[in-house]
From TrEMBL:
It comes from Mucilaginibacter angelicae. Pfam families: ADH_N (PF08240), ADH_zinc_N (PF00107). This is Zinc-binding alcohol dehydrogenase family protein. The lineage of its organism: Bacteria, Pseudomonadati, Bacteroidota, Sphingobacteriia, Sphingobacteriales. It comes from the Bacteria. CDD domains: MDR_like_2. InterPro entries: ADH-like_C, ADH-like_N, ER, GroES-like_sf, Lipid_raft_assoc_Zn_ADH, NAD(P)-bd_dom_sf. Residues 10-329 form the Enoyl reductase (ER) domain.
Length: 333
């Protein structure tokens, strides 16, 4: 099979196209012919050799995919060859998703929703599972106020859909471009609920948008210095949902001084605890929500087919924060 391999930590020149053996499945695994793979920030963080690189199990990156089962081990339950599926493989696959095939434990996969493309389905698992993990950990009520920092990305959009589907509508969100702001409008947020974060006195504007009140919940999907603003607008003893682990030392000081409850969100934590069924069960639930029209599939930007050039372009766009509210996806034939 063809795959894009990372030959060493560093810039995008370290990718190359290679020919690899077909993965051999284990008793409880399926072999998936990958039809589409989505890109995530953790991909370029791994490429750079940052903290996330410790999760690598293969020189082939990519953690998210959609495709067709071509082989199933004797211990596989509920899936068969020909099934169209999606998965967040994490580091449990035989290799990453920048490839034509992957062997993966059947408990980690879900059936692709009907009526959407493989490319759309490939964009669901990572953002959908992370958003669902955030949503269930938050336990927010209909009267709670929520601020989402950097909401136009995949996780933020999915989280807003989940919250609104449950009747939770007191949401203020930030985005950094006109295109991203329009994306949030398309989710049902109004012009008074969406704030461009490239402004002076950002914290003041966020608080004003919330009726001069601090927030019950803050969700940080950005990290860096803007996480300090996110911490500032949280109530005393409020709840801070950290999806990035990229807050600054000042962020942590502000949260400590507020007596905040910090909830760390890492979808790979379930795999680390060998709770693989959480992935498949959650993907099946999200798939039903999409099939039933309660939420819709993510917006995507298909940037090419499996090639070194496509992978390099995706990594450059993600590093430059130029995805503008659409998940980057490549087609694999």
């Amino acid at each position: 099979m063809k795959a894009i391999q990372l030959n060493g930590f560093g810039d995008v020149s370290n990718f190359s196209l290679v020919e690899m053996d077909t993965p051999v499945i284990k008793n409880d695994e399926v072999l998936i012919q990958i039809k589409a793979a989505a890109f995530n920030p953790i991909d370029y963080q791994m490429r750079l050799g940052l903290r996330e690189s410790r999760l690598m199990c293969s020189p082939v990156l990519g953690r998210e995919l959609a495709g067709v089962i071509v082989q199933a081990g004797p211990g596989v339950v509920g899936f068969k060859p020909g099934d169209e599926v999606m998965a967040l493989a994490g580091s449990r696959g035989s290799n990453g998703s920048y490839a034509g095939l992957m062997a993966l434990n059947y408990q980690m996969i879900g059936i692709k929703p009907k009526g959407i493309s493989f490319e759309q389905a490939a964009a669901i698992p990572s953002s959908g599972l992370t958003a669902w993990h955030s949503f269930t950990r938050m336990q927010a009520g209909a009267n709670d106020t929520i601020f989402i920092n950097g909401a136009a990305g995949g996780v933020g959009r999915f989280l807003i859909k989940l919250l609104r589907a449950q009747g939770i509508s007191n949401i203020i969100a930030t985005a950094g471009s006109e295109q991203s702001i329009k994306t949030l409008y398309s989710l049902g947020l109004s012009s008074t609920e969406v704030i461009n974060y490239n402004q002076e006195d950002l914290a003041g504007k966020i608080i004003t948008a919330n009726g001069e009140e601090l927030f019950d919940y803050v969700v940080d999907i950005v990290g860096g210095s803007i996480s300090e603003t996110a911490a500032t607008v949280l109530k005393t003893n409020g709840n801070y949902i950290d999806i990035t682990f990229l807050g600054t030392e000042l962020t942590r000081q502000i949260l400590f001084d507020k007596g905040a409850t910090t909830c760390n969100i890492a979808a790979y934590a379930f795999a680390a605890n060998n709770n693989l069924s959480w992935y498949g069960e959650t993907l099946r639930y999200l798939g039903r929500l999409i099939d039933d029209g309660k939420i819709d599939a993510p917006e995507i930007n298909v940037i090419g087919e499996l090639s070194v050039e496509t992978v390099q372009q995706a990594h450059r766009l993600m590093e430059a924060n130029c995805i503008y509210g659409k998940k980057l996806v490549m087609t694999i034939s």
